[in-house]
Amino acid sequence: MNDTIAAISTALGVGAISIIRISGSDAIDITNKIWKGKDLKKLPSHTIQYGHIVDGDEIIDEVLLSIMRAPKTFTVEDVIEINSHGGIATTNKVLELLLINGCRLAEPGEFTKRAFLNGRIDLIEAEGVMDLISAKTDKSRALALSQVSGNISQLIKELRQKIVNVVANIEVNIDYPEYEDIAVVTTNQLRDCVIEIERELKNILSKSETSTIIKEGIKVVIVGKPNVGKSSILNCLLEEEKAIVTDIAGTTRDIVEGDISIDGILLHVIDTAGIRETEDVVEKLGVSKSINLIEEAELVLFVLNNNEELTSEELEILEKIKDKPAIIIVNKTDLPKRLNNIPTEKSIIYLSAQNNIGLDDLRREIKLLFNLEKLETEDYSYLSSARSISLLKQAYQALEEVKKGIENNNPIDMVEIDLKNIWNLLGQITGDTYSEELIDQLFSQFCLGK
Fold first, then answer.
1. How many domains in the chain?
2. Both 88 and 147 in a single domain?
3. Hey, how many other C-beta atoms are within 10 angstroms of the C-beta on 69?
4. Max CA-CA distance within the chain?
5. Closest C-alpha among 287, 275, 286, 271 to residue 235
6. Are residues 349 and 261 located together in one domain of the fold?
7. Residue 52's pLDDT is what?
8. Considering only Cβ atoms within 10 Å of each terminal Cβ, which end of the chain, N or C, has fewer?
């Protein structure tokens, strides 16, 4: 934290502009050594300057330089951002000069880590920064932005404050029982407060569980025997010729995948090898992978051929997916029907991928199955990371122990211990309480220069 770091903040490659970011107490002094222009030490904060990056007498690049003085910066340290011309050679040369003159190459996510450690942001906001960078849909962008803005953090902090108020009253009652003017915390008062906290926790948790769909999307696997039209359905959904389509059974031997968006929710669609008995070694590996993907899928699209009767393999697949979210697709409805009754309670969609008929019905059924229309909301005040949701669930379970303690008339100091545990768990969500190992692991997932 005492040294000055530098890194390239834009994607390395050919482009109009590259940004090299520097942060630390010596950011201005170090940059001044390679800067030809007005003296950076004498310039006001939050201004943009025109000048050149130089190596001795050699001009390296013509740049715009932003100077931002502590503490009103992202990292709460002095920050310099050099806007150079894009290109690998130029950008690397500017970074090289900074490192030679005293900067250290930043670790992945170190700028955001410093912002957290210096109190500029909390862990929820930090995770929101990472999610905002990787957002692929408008809904996931809005969710990440809500985290960055601190809306969710405020909800958690208000809950922690309510718990602190209860704990403080309990401790006063325990430590100063002789004072008659102190309000005694009764069982009913404690119960009412716990019920209120439980209601708010449950509300955040119920919203947060749907946020996984918004953030991560839905893993969709298309399965079926060879030549039923799985690859054609994938191509129709993606609106591009992603998978090879032929009349030869077993054409698809490995997974082919792509992403689509339905109502702002990302679907990761995977076309698999046709499931059948085969002696071909490569195809057999593909079939095995297809079966494994059924287990991992959040939605299975099981494709049947309208022109063929059900086989024993298809009946086995129906049994395998009976407890999973699944939609049965009867393809090739343009051909004569030979398919017998399908023994399933799953939704059945009839379509002809070759003629692009029935795809809208399939999209509509997916929306119904996952209640995607109900996710159309302007309220994005909920958690989205697995870490945060896990801690919130632990806090909710701990609150159940508090309720049991109250009902069983446990000593008030025992109830207080459980309340403090909940307060601590909520603190881990925002980062008010944390371990060094957690922080290192979290920020290592960020890209370099962020």
1. 3
2. no
3. 17
4. 90
5. 271
6. yes
7. 97
8. N
82 within 8 A of 34, measured Cβ to Cβ: no
> pLDDT for 181-233, tens place per residue?
444 556 677 788 888 888 888 888 877 767 777 777 889 999 888 888 888 88
Tokens of 138: 């408008």
Which helix H or strand E contains 270, and what residues bound it? strand 265-271
Helix (H), strand (E) counts: the chain: 14, 13
Please state, in angstroms and rounded to a whole number, the distance separating the CA atoms of residues 293 and 307: 26
Residues 370, 256 within the same domain: yes
Record the tokens describing residue 332, joined without a space: 């090739």
User: 413: domain CATH number?
Assistant: 1.20.120.430
Q: Has residue 448 been placed in a domain?
A: no
pLDDT, one tens digit per residue, over 354-379 is 888 999 999 999 888 887 765 655 55
Question: What residues make up the domain containing 355?
Answer: 217-375
Nearest to 290 by CA among 277, 271, 310: 271
| pLDDT over 70 at 296, yes or no | yes
Pairing of strands 104-105, 265-271: unpaired
Strands 256-262 and 58-68: unpaired
Amino acid 66 reads S
303 contacts 273 by C-beta, under 8 angstroms: no
State the residue for tokens 């004498």. 42
Average pLDDT, the chain: 83
Q: Are strands 218-223 and 58-68 parallel, antiparallel or unpaired?
A: unpaired
